[in-house]
Design a protein that fits this description.
2 domains, four-stranded antiparallel beta sheet, Dimeric_a/b-barrel, metal ion binding, 17% strand, 25% helix, five-stranded antiparallel beta sheet
Length: 451
């Protein structure tokens, strides 16, 4: 693989701890937009020897409307997938984004207006490195912004949002995040061992390479625009941690029982220890050990008595669960680069404190739009694939808190009979999202030189 040409966000994991900012930009002047790309291109981080880079990293991604705004020729625009052209808001029916998650409830600048053109993300392992890199990005954009009348500027800053996590790298619910990602053939980047996870063909994640079927899928044209790029799905969630904590307490008789129920819903304990390897109690040493915390399968848990079939982790990566064809699981894997924002809310807090906390889900795949639409419609908001009927993912599914609804139920297989928990709420509410293209460094240069 041409690692030096592939943006690091595709192949390289985020640092631990991490500090960063995402900036959403609207381009009102194509020539200026291309000039800014040329200015920041030397700072965009490739994947070769990224682990030796002690500085912060910069990633640049763009929407279909962004490619239009930058002056990409129509012949090239026509070569992009239809789902990408439509945008996330217009694919709500495919994603099952309804009710509170429907696009009409999203927060600006997200939505179907196509205002977001380019997103820039700075991320680093220290606050100092992050701030220095972010200041450099702002200095490149500042001359082109009209702060008094933003719409009159050559570019507009529509969104500027910080994120980060300390050394525990836990989400705002208090559970370790970002443990399981696929290994990509030819990348030279090895993931922690797993007893069932073999490396997946590069073409499933990076354009211009063979996929699992042994063929090179179509990509945007010309080749310099498409090759070594990928697609990204960004979904922004507000997390209702106090409601989750209250649900655990209302459905258990002790703190220990509440912790177990939370682990059953996530599929892992707070430390990151998987239920399959530690079904009865948390094991911090296991959770902290990257050589062990992802090294498991589900074939020895065929009835879900250790990790329920409906647990979030098992839904999103069924691994070797009974009745699953591993080749099908492999083509639905996605690189997750999700980041959280806001403070972790302690487990004993059951009332919201009014502070903002949530998650930017970032999924990357050479056909990310179709992959996430499949995951959303089949694995998250349906239970048939796990023989669970109408049950949905307890953590990121769309729920209504209806105690009489099968869709708002979570089943835990146990002896002597299974337990069913009713009235699941939507614990993560979608407030926006975008389908994005991740150009290679060569593609960024090509776009910047258009005239």
């Amino acid at each position: 693989m041409e690692l030096e040409d592939i943006q690091s966000i595709i192949l390289r994991d985020r640092p631990t701890p991490y500090f960063g900012t995402v900036v959403a930009i609207k381009i009102n002047n194509a020539e200026v937009g291309r000039q800014i790309l040329a200015n920041v291109l030397p700072d965009v981080t490739g994947s070769k020897e990224w682990h030796k880079d002690t500085q912060a990293t910069l990633s640049i991604v763009m929407t279909y409307e962004g490619l239009q705004a930058l002056g990409v020729p129509q012949s090239s625009l026509d070569s992009f997938p239809d789902s990408f052209k439509a945008g996330m808001a217009n694919r709500a029916n495919k994603l099952r984004d309804a009710d509170v998650n429907a696009p009409e409830n999203w927060v600006a600048p997200f939505g179907d207006k196509g205002d977001i053109h380019v997103c820039a993300t700075v991320i680093a392992d220290t606050k100092e490195k992050w701030q220095a890199k972010f200041d450099e990005l702002k200095s490149n954009m500042k001359p082109y912004i009209d702060y008094d009348t933003p719409e009159n500027g050559n570019i507009e800053i529509l969104l500027e949002h910080d994120f980060g996590s300390d050394n525990n790298v836990k989400n705002v619910f208090g559970y370790r995040d970002g443990i399981s990602n696929p290994e990509i053939k030819g990348s030279g980047i090895q993931t922690p061992p797993s007893n069932m996870d073999e490396a997946i063909a590069a073409g499933e994640f990076v354009l211009g390479y063979e996929g699992e079927a042994g063929t090179v899928p179509p990509m945007p044209q010309p080749e310099v625009l498409g090759k070594n790029g990928s697609f990204m799905v960004l979904r922004a969630y507000n997390s209702h941690v106090a409601a989750f904590n209250k649900f655990l307490k209302d459905n258990s008789d002790s703190d220990e029982e509440a912790e177990l129920l939370g682990a059953k819903m996530w599929g892992r304990w707070r430390s990151g220890a998987p239920l399959v390897l530690s079904p009865d109690h948390d094991d911090e040493d296991l959770g902290d050990d990257p050589s062990r915390n992802n090294d498991f399968g589900y074939k020895d848990d065929p009835y879900g008595k250790k990790c329920p079939f409906g647990a979030h982790a098992r839904r999103m990566n069924p691994r070797d669960s009974k009745d699953f064809i591993l080749s099908d699981v492999r083509i639905h894997r996605i690189v997750r680069r999700s980041v959280g924002f806001g403070e972790v809310l302690p487990a004993d807090v059951t009332e919201e404190d009014g502070k903002e906390r949530g998650l930017f889900f970032i999924g990357i795949n050479a056909h990310a739009m179709e992959t996430v639409e499949y995951l959303q419609s089949q694995w998250i908001n349906d239970g048939n694939f796990m023989s669970l009927g109408e049950e949905k993912d307890p953590m990121i599914g769309l729920h209504h808190g209806d105690k009489d609804s099968a869709a708002d139920t979570f089943t835990v297989p146990t002896d002597p009979i299974r337990k069913r928990y009713h009235g699941i709420e939507t614990f993560n509410t979608l407030y926006g999202g975008e389908y994005l293209f991740i150009p290679s460094l060569s593609a960024l240069k090509w776009i910047s030189e258009l005239s």
